[in-house]
């Protein structure tokens, strides 16, 4: 491991790809596992928590790590695919040590941990050797002074904190995709998870909730006060919010719907009026809807929205007024590939695909799957008896309902069947 840097910092490792000797990626780094027993002796780093296919978390011993650089981690390729379970004697460096309040013994300075460095000892074991500490900011200074000190120069790393902050862990989570951040939060100890959830802003928490298993969603929502829970539900996509509210006790669901903004609540109530395993129960009421006088340039401007899911950006729906679902009569759908081939000043109505019959809200999962497969689509319109657009059902919504409820917890090759 001569080319491995002398010292590696934990926060910079998170998210790095893990490769086998053939150069094939086998996972991503999610955390480090250390045996922290005292504040005098440098803790031994036992291994990495890696996320592999199916968002499964496994343990990769440091003895299997052959090389680390600024952009990747290499292993021997011999990985045990058994799910990682944290032991009482183990500490997650990212999940549990960041934001710990500590004191630098030489100066009496108090601050919070924002990173931890590891290096190889003479025994070839990896140990936690450095602690990066940030003092509280003062006055107009947004950030306090930072210090990087030896492990033995810091007090408080072995002390359990009931009021541990989450600033630096949140900063690490913000750099991740929602699904990756959800995986980290799912694996946190319960008390740490509550602290992190409290520190996330409503929009980010909504994104993360949509990627968590149902039991985690319900548990997190129950720990929020009612006003904040309603705010977070408003930030979620209506179909995901409807699924989550349906899992709550009826009195809690009714209270939260009452606290939500009326427009958001109406969307959710409408989705909840359909059976869960139908097109109506799976659809989103917020596809890209345009009037017949819209140009292709306007359509492309709408689908460029970075917050729009890929599946919803693949198609626009042209309807008569009103353009909010349920709309006026659906005139047809336009595929983005077709729009890209047309002059921007052309009306979208001139590029409609009128060959498709829209889905009805009572269509079953099998019927939706057959429809998407027949037309090679990633999204499809759902209309009522009068031909008004109610929403769009997407392939990712379909998969969420077709896979087992605990599909996020299943390992490679076990997601279906």
Automatic annotation (TrEMBL):
Residues 352-410 form the CBS domain. The keyword Nuclease does not apply. The keyword Magnesium does not apply. Keywords: CBS domain. SMART domains: MgtE_N (SM00924). This is Magnesium transporter MgtE N-terminal domain-containing protein. It comes from Nocardioides taihuensis.
